Give the backbone structure.
Amino acid sequence: MSSGTLSSPRGSFVHGLGSWTLDAVAGAGDLALFALRMLRCLFDRSRGRSAALECTYRIGVLSVPVVMVTGAFIGMVLAVQAYDQFRLMHLETRLGAVINISLVKELGPVMAAIMLAGRVGSAMAAELGTMRVTEQIEALRALGANPIRHLVVPRFLACALMIPLLTAVADLVGSVGGWFFSTQVLGINSFHYWHHAYQYVTAYDVLCGLVKSVFFGGAIALVACHRGFHCGAGAEGVGRAATEAFVLSFVSILGLDFVLGMLVNNLYYTVWANATTLM
Amino acid sequence: MPEPLIELRHVSRRFGDTEVLRGLNLSVRAGETLVVIGESGCGKSVTLKLMMALLPPSEGDVLWQGRPLAARREREIARERLRFGYLFQGAALFDSLDVYENVAFGLRQNTDLAEPAIREIVLERLREVGLPASVCPRKPAELSGGMKKRVGLARALALSPEVMFYDEPTTGLDPIMSDVINELILRIQATRPVTSVVVTHDMRTVRKVADRVAMLHPLARLPPDEPQIVFEGTADEAFATDDRRVRQFLAGEAGERIQELTAA
């Protein structure tokens, strides 16, 4: 058989799928190499002004209001959605357990990460993309600075270290929001609400949520910086880098959440082998 | 003849499927001012970045003082690169830093100088390019094109480089500011033992600063067996050459390329 009959014509579905797969594999490999270079620079203590503190302020402190607002609404929405089902079973007071466990294990870390990806990830990709387009990244190299150490490491550290605090804020405000709506609007008894919450939510659940968030923060910074460093030419390239940074961060957060969720469960059953439930 | 300071040997560079440079041979000798001219997109800036090791070649070797970069470690290249200063086409000033911090960046990054010494050098370099100390707190967005270029030049000179690369130093500037930049290049050459490589379209720059001129031709319109450097010689030889492509470029005449407009 000639090679001509084996190959698919350009523009065909098979050709497109093959091309997309190759691009995806090459992109993943490039991101992995980028992450390795960043990790190597993480422990490099060469001189030069560090922007870590400034990044920490921009990424962490300035994200607090949006995370608080999101957390409060998530807590209240959980109460609204779960109330009817629980009332049918006369288990309204158990809402405290459901809302708080959902918040600390899943919604707090994931929503804080999504807010961070939207507010900070896209901005980082656009900022670094603009620096690339205007040759500022090359100027850093020309002046003896390692662009990864100078630009990526502070952003990675700020994201990975600040996101557990943002998650804790989201958990706390969400918890208060859920309590407020459940007790003040839906009329659930406050004592029983908190009693069930204390009974079911363990420190392990809270800790798992916070640890997961560190991975989310690291992934957001890496994906956003990688997109910025590989930004195409002009305003269109910068815009595309910002969009790609958010979409890829979002997918990474959900993918990591799934994998880490499984790992955390397996770890729980391995360490506490006799446990029949997670609570 | 002494060994070239920088040498490109059979260098090719591709971006995806597009070949920009093919089998390029070009050397820079210590103390000279080499001006590289050629049409937009012919690979002049890429040549400069290859010389500075800001880009790796797809094929061929880049040599610094006779030693190929391929035989050096990345850390060594980064350290050696500090002997070179680079004035970027758009100045490439760091947006987030003010003028003072931009000029001081290389000093902070690569030396242990105390703040008073850094301040002294920054103000001296700014003075050298004709800027007063009052511009120090201004951000790049608040500067005119000519000022940006001069701050970029001050930043490149801060570490007292042995070789200066200028990527289209006068592009986008008015004729007076262009002449100011040309005069600055000449002044830098006169006051320091510096080797310069200038990429430009500006014939006044060629006449004013060049010891030697090399002209690149776009690969798209070059026969496959012809070298990409279609002219190499002094500025006077360039203006006296019979080569149609060089004469046309130096005179700024569209020639047969006007047919592209009528054909479109």
In short: Residues 175-191 of chain B form the longest helix (17 residues). The two ends of chain B are 50 Å apart (CA to CA). The CA atoms of residues 50 and 123 of chain B lie 31 Å apart. Chain B touches chain A through 26 residues (CB under 8 Å).
